[in-house]
Amino acid sequence: MHSNESKTLSDVPQREQWGSRVAFILAAAGSAVGLGNIWRFPYVVGTNGGAAFVIIYLVVIFLIGYPMMITEMSLGQKTHKNAIGAFKDLAPGTPWWITGALGVLAGFVILSFYSVVAGWALAYFFKTLGGSLGVGTDFVGTFVGHITNPGVTVMWHGIFMIITLGVIAAGVVKGIERTVKFLMPALFILLLALVVRSMTLPGAGAGIAFYLTPNFKELTPQSILGAVGQAFFTLSLGMGCMITYGSYLGDKEEISDNAAWVVGLDTAVALLAGFAIFPAVFALGFDPGSGAGLAFITLPGVFAAMPGGTIFGAAFFLLLAVAALTSAISLLEVVVAWVVDEKGWNRKKASIIIGVLIFIVGIPATISMNEVNFQMFGMPFFDVLDIFQESILLPLGGLLTAIYAGHIYTAKRLREDVARNKSKIQLGEWFDGLIKYLVPLGIAVVMVMGWVDIIKNYMAK
Ligand code: PHE
């Protein structure tokens, strides 16, 4: 008779570990590099005064992003647990697990609308390749037509979710690691090709000047808010994602250099995305400040007018889809790791069930922009999900993680954990100051400012 009690240690499936240091860096960088870098960063820069915003963003990445990255990776490595399990392990019998629960919820919420945009990118890849976006196309009309066609958007959202859940069902090494080892180099090549194309167009200089000349007059308090929000989103912080990925690190792997690699790669890709986009936008006489439509309305126009535009346009949307996929798998992994670790679900079953649930929640987001106009609080459901993650889930998750790590677990102990393995970057007392005071204070101020803003906008309606 085999009762549960008679299970020996060897019956318990071993928790997976990354095959190599490079695999971990690519997976974490794959999570970080996503729509946030290639779709969102350039348009936020475009609407916030170009280089002036970039400077603030870099300061935030350095002072808030990097210490948070180290903290999350280290807590994951220490506990070898998912976002919720890590806090349960570290602070048993306390409500700190709620921090992880916010993260799991964030994974669910973000992926449900992230996949919708990723679906647009896939569809635009085929549209561009098929030559249906030539000169003279009504690009606004095409985009609006696309996102308000529920049959088509739900289909692409579904296709993207199936690919995502397929990768996660295959496991950490056979799924995530294999995928990122192939896709991340491809992503860098595509991006570099686009940068070269864009910067060599006649008239590219104006775009480069816009991108590199700071215009501080266009900066508003909202820009700073935007920089912090963008930093958290782009680095996949504040939601247990890096805790989860860190949990698959062996105890001998170092943290501070790896975290610097991930932050550095993510920042490099965001900055390069600007060099791929602005020179081309200016060279062909388009407006850089067109907001969220930059990638799907302005750029198709730019590509249509550019020599070799079909190939470069297709390359751009492929880049967007690839970047989205390596992030989407990390979002799904946060949720799946939780049910696998804590609820004992089998990974395949968990990936399918959760993937399908996220697909379903995403449907009202896909159809919130058309005649059906699925609204909540007077906004499209898509925006509700985005605002929920940006102004509540990520900042609150980040704030609680920083307070827990800095003051309860203590920054000093965290630093000792990190120092167990040799690394080039040594954490000094500066790290304690950042994680204990600057990071939580910065997040709290921005979060409250964000709430005030939302309430004001809501009242004004
Ligand atoms: N970092 C991803 C991007 O920039 C999004 C993401 C957020 C992924 C949170 C995982 C966790 O697109």
Automatic annotation (TrEMBL):
Annotated compartments: Membrane
Recorded topology in the membrane: Multi-pass membrane protein
Species of provenance: Clostridium formicaceticum
Alphabetical list of SUPFAM superfamilies matching this protein: SNF-like
InterPro entries: Na/ntran_symport, SNS_sf, YocR/YhdH-like
Membrane-spanning ranges: 21-39, 51-75, 96-126, 154-173, 185-212, 224-248, 260-286, 311-340, 352-372, 392-409, 430-452
Keyword terms, alphabetized: Membrane, Symport, Transmembrane, Transmembrane helix, Transport
Name assigned to this protein: Transporter
Broad class of the protein's primary localization: membrane
Entry keyword Cytoplasm: no
An example molecular function term from Gene Ontology annotations: symporter activity
Protein family membership: Belongs to the sodium:neurotransmitter symporter (SNF) (TC 2.A.22) family.
Cellular component GO terms held in the UniProt record: membrane
